[in-house]
Amino acid sequence: MASILTLETMSLPLRVLEEDSSSSSSFSSNPTDAVIFVGISLVLGIASRHALRGMRVPYTVALLVLAISLKLSRSKSTDIAEYGTHHRLGKIGNGIRLWANIHPDLLLAVFLPALLFESSFSMEVHWIKRCIIQIFLLAGPGVLISTFCLGSALKV
């Protein structure tokens, strides 16, 4: 049986970037703006990692604290994803708007493999050997128990 493939059946779920008429004149969706925002974010991340080199604070915790402090410093902004988009930041604000409207599956497909590789590459093998029993207990029965508890709590 030959199946008929049309453009409608092959289309991927895309998010339409909706802008109100007041901000559409100041916002043009240029893909280079998204790349500029990613480049600035990477530079800030590298600078944070370099500044935290001698400290015992985990890198991810420091980035979380940095992001929360940025959010609290701009208390007028109501949504953390919209930070900087209404403050006339130009290309950086356009990049933030582009990344705020990206499809979540695409975001996971792009960044999750790199994050997993970095985490696994920085692991120490002797630490894993020392904690292998706890790892298997949390990965197997621990996940099943938490799934059952969460499911029963949400069922009620």
From TrEMBL:
Annotated keywords: Cell membrane, Ion transport, Membrane, Potassium, Potassium transport, Sodium, Sodium transport, Transmembrane, Transmembrane helix, Transport
Pfam family, one: Na_H_Exchanger
Membrane topology (UniProt): Multi-pass membrane protein
PANTHER family tied to this protein: SODIUM/HYDROGEN EXCHANGER (PTHR10110), SODIUM_HYDROGEN EXCHANGER 7 (PTHR10110:SF86)
Top-level taxon in the UniProt lineage: Eukaryota
Signal peptide extent: none
UniProt-annotated location(s): Cell membrane
GO molecular function annotations of the record: potassium:proton antiporter activity; sodium:proton antiporter activity
GO BP of this protein: regulation of intracellular pH; sodium ion import across plasma membrane
InterPro entries: Cation/H_exchanger_CPA1, Cation/H_exchanger_TM
Record domain Cation/H+ exchanger transmembrane: where: 42-155
An annotated GO cellular component: chloroplast envelope
Catalytic activity: K(+)(in) + H(+)(out) = K(+)(out) + H(+)(in); Na(+)(in) + H(+)(out) = Na(+)(out) + H(+)(in)
Designated name of the protein: Cation/H+ exchanger transmembrane domain-containing protein
Keyword presence, Ubl conjugation: no
Transmembrane segments: 34-52, 106-123, 135-154
